[in-house]
Design brief:
410 residues, alpha/beta, Aminopeptidase, 8-stranded mixed beta sheet, globular, binds zinc ion
């Protein structure tokens, strides 16, 4: 029987030849399909060809980034995970962008520092302000250290930037204690030999009056006291006659809530200091040495602390360091050395002007024989100072505490 088998039938193939031909056709079709997929898919999805090949490569051969991350595991860099985390911006406790560093900000940061650095940081109250706020001191470093450095900030109300800077430097010291070095010693080694006592805000009532006005007072008697000083300053013509209470507090106020200047209330050359004779926004020395509760608490703390080796009193402004209290002998040369050490690390000028009398540094140097300098941070024409300069001040003073610690242990 004749069958129309078509052209192929003219050259009949064996069964094995047909299977081989089918395999070749199948292989060619599969290859063509894959080639079309490779070329057309990126075009259809908007993906670049190189990106597509990267993606393909990653599916088959793994992602190179995984290998990089593994290379940076903490164990291999010699840093603990905690240390690494502290170097990230998000974990900074003292916020340098805070426009007005308040008493509440400081309280929150003290609690956070104590939680994050329990081995090297603790704090407690050493008294109360006129309006009833707690006065805090911090212990940074070895509680049993042979030496002690005292740093006091926030003494003058409108100079509250000093509290902000002091708290930021406390954190910086702690965060870098095992890494940073001064004079060949790590900051942790310095803190083992010299404990840092920090009083970050000696005048919390004044700071809050300056930042938030008369509504910040906690007690009626405090409001009466502040309003009385305001009326007195108006009567004496010490301030413009049309200044409102809150503007007065914001741009002038330096004193505590009873109108005593805490840096004119110490028992050194107190009798001879007679610049202002009644409670005032500034420069009133008080009814007697240590009459202000804040000064009494500070002096009592210092008397009870045992030997203190050196003192930094942090104020604003001028980028300068006052050191001359009229002292003589070895404490004069020691105080000058401390001032020069501070100037060397900050770039601040060494000030040749004599201190005003009855200040904390006068008392430390002249009565207690301890090197003590006044460090004036920041620059500005009028108060309140522009707080946007805080990050810059923190940067230029970032080795200040370590330099003072090294001055003590050297
Ligand atoms: Zn001051």
């Amino acid at each position: 029987m004749a069958l129309d088998m078509g052209a192929d039938d003219e050259n009949p193939l064996s069964a094995s030849q047909r299977r081989n031909r089918m395999r070749r056709r199948l292989t060619i079709r599969c290859f063509a399909f894959l080639l079309a997929a490779v070329i057309l898919l990126p075009a259809l999805t908007g993906c670049s060809l190189s990106g597509y090949f990267d993606w393909l490569g990653n599916q088959f051969f793994g992602n190179g980034e995984t290998q990089d991350t593994t290379d940076r595991l903490p164990e291999e860099t010699g840093q603990s995970e905690t240390e690494q985390n502290k170097t990230t911006v998000d974990d900074v406790i003292v916020d340098l962008t805070d426009s007005a560093y308040s008493y509440a900000d400081m309280q929150a940061d003290l609690a956070m520092l104590a939680a994050c650095y329990p081995d090297r940081f603790s704090y407690e109250s050493f008294g109360q302000s006129f309006d009833g706020r707690q006065l805090y001191w911090c212990r940074i470093g070895n509680p049993d250290a042979q030496h002690k450095l005292l740093v006091v900030a926030g003494m003058h109300a409108r100079e509250y930037i000093s509290s902000h800077v002091a708290m930021a430097q406390a954190e910086f010291l702690l965060a870098n204690a095992d890494k940073a070095k001064t004079g060949g010693m790590t900051w942790g080694e310095l803190l083992d030999e010299c404990v840092l006592y920090l009083v970050p805000m000696l005048n919390p009532d004044g700071v809050m009056l300056c930042q938030e006005g008369i509504s910040s007072v906690l007690n009626e008697k405090t409001e009466e006291s502040v309003m009385s000083v305001y009326r007195s300053d108006l009567d004496y013509g010490l301030v413009p006659s049309d200044v409102t209470i809150n503007t007065y507090l914001r741009i002038f106020w330096k004193a505590n809530a009873e109108g005593t200047d805490l840096n004119r209330n110490y028992d050194a050359l107190w009798s001879s200091y007679r610049k202002i004779l009644q409670p005032c926004f500034s420069n009133y020395k008080g009814s007697s040495p240590e009459s202000a509760p804040e000064t009494a608490a500070m002096s009592g703390f210092i008397r009870g602390a045992g030997t203190i080796d050196a003192v930094l009193s942090i104020h604003t402004q001028g980028r300068t360091v006052y050191w001359d209290c009229g002292q003589e002998g070895s404490v004069r040369s020691e105080t000058l050395s401390l001032a020069q050490a501070v100037c060397n690390v900050t770039g601040y000028s060494l000030n040749t002007t004599r201190n005003n009398d009855a200040s904390l540094t006068d008392w430390m140097v002249l009565v207690r024989g301890v090197p003590a300098v006044t460090v004036e941070v920041a620059v500005g024409e009028k108060y309140p100072l522009d707080t946007s300069q805080v990050p810059g001040i923190v940067e230029e003073t970032q080795t200040l505490f370590a330099a003072a610690l090294y001055f003590v242990v050297r």
